[in-house]
Amino acid sequence: METHDVDTVIAGAGVIGIAIARALALAGREVLLLEKNGGIGEETSARNSEVIHAGIYYESGSLKARHCVRGRALLYSFCRDRGVPHRRCGKLIVAGDADEAQRLSGIAARARANGVDDLEFVEGKDLRALEPALAAVAALQSPSTGIVDSHALMLALLGEAEAHGAQTVTRAPVEGGAVEPAGTIRLDIGGEEPMRLRARSFVNAAGLWAPALARRIEGLPPAPDLVLVKGNYFLMSRKAPFSRLIYPVPRDGGLGIHLTLDLAGRARFGPDTEWLAESDPAGIDYSVDATRRGAFAEAIRRYWPEVRDGDLDPGYAGVRPKLAGGLYPDFRIEGPETHGLGPHVFLYGIESPGLTSSLSIAEDVAERLTRSR
Predict the structure, then answer these.
(1) How sure is the predictor about 39, in pLDDT bands with cuts at 50, 70 and 90?
(2) What is the pLDDT of residues 252-301, one digit of tens each?
(3) Rounded distance, CA 12 to CA 38, Å?
(4) Quick one: 3-47+151-225+329-371 is in which CATH superfamily?
(5) Measured between alpha carbons, how far is residue 25 from residues 31, 33, 71, 85, 157 in Å?
(6) Which of 137, 159, 185, 222 is the most buried (most CB within 10 A)?
(7) What end-to-end distance do the CA atoms of the chain give, in Å?
(8) What CATH number matches the domain at 90-144+226-323, 3.30.9.10, 3.40.50.300, 1.10.630.10, 3.40.50.2300?
(9) Rounded to whole angstroms, how far apart are CA atoms 180 and 171?
């Protein structure tokens, strides 16, 4: 089989891979973006809350904190300039009792350490004026939180990437390969038209599949293990009386069952946290078990007592590629300074706030590849 030389190959056309393709194409690089599915962003990028996060919860100095805060600013600017549907609707982190109210100060302190300096503490009549239907003793208001049409965002990013020469090939899984003595990486591509590529630079942005992909390429460093965490969502069958996103105080490794809105104002609740025993992404069941409705309704009543079980319809589910080893693992971005193999970057554990962070991560990856050439 003939081998084709390509400057840069990116595996994975979710929002991260597409954003990286755009950044490299804008820098004048030859870019080939490969996706194993039939379309872009069909997995993690399409199965989330579509929230533009402010950068509140993450450990100070972490990649999540840095990329979320930087990425949020870049994302708002990109969406505004390109007409991508979005809204800076704000959110409330709500405390249901005095103990939770005390925890709000710690959340605010961590946010300030991350560069989020616009949180406001509200309580009493001021809180009721913001959201009259809300049951809470106090809240932190985050005016810089928003929502975005994730698919429109990916299309806009991909359009710019392709306008600057990037090429996208779907149904093109990377089935194997090897690191070559010169530092290039050979990639064996399956699908309807199998091919062999030699990449001067290779970016593994395969999300849920990133570790499995790395293990199929001889000579790469050991890939980390992932824990797959399923998040189920229920949709509101009637209009919810809220204009902002409503989040409970975080607990149990997640942000709790929160209320988010789509751009039409429809409410959805989730995700919950379902730790999967399944470690193979191919075995994921994305269906939503309707019997989880009662647990959702019980959690929602802590901040909205009027919700009824019958208000909730099973919606959709997503799965987070969480790095094994803790409740709150950071992103893992391995560049040449880490693996020493040459101008290649491998991304693991890019879960929330990956959507918000996408443009910042793309800048980071582009800079690492440029420095290593």
Answers:
(1) very high
(2) 656 789 999 999 999 999 999 999 998 899 999 999 999 999 999 999 99
(3) 12
(4) FAD/NAD(P)-binding domain (3.50.50.60)
(5) 6, 11, 19, 24, 11
(6) 185
(7) 28
(8) 3.30.9.10
(9) 25
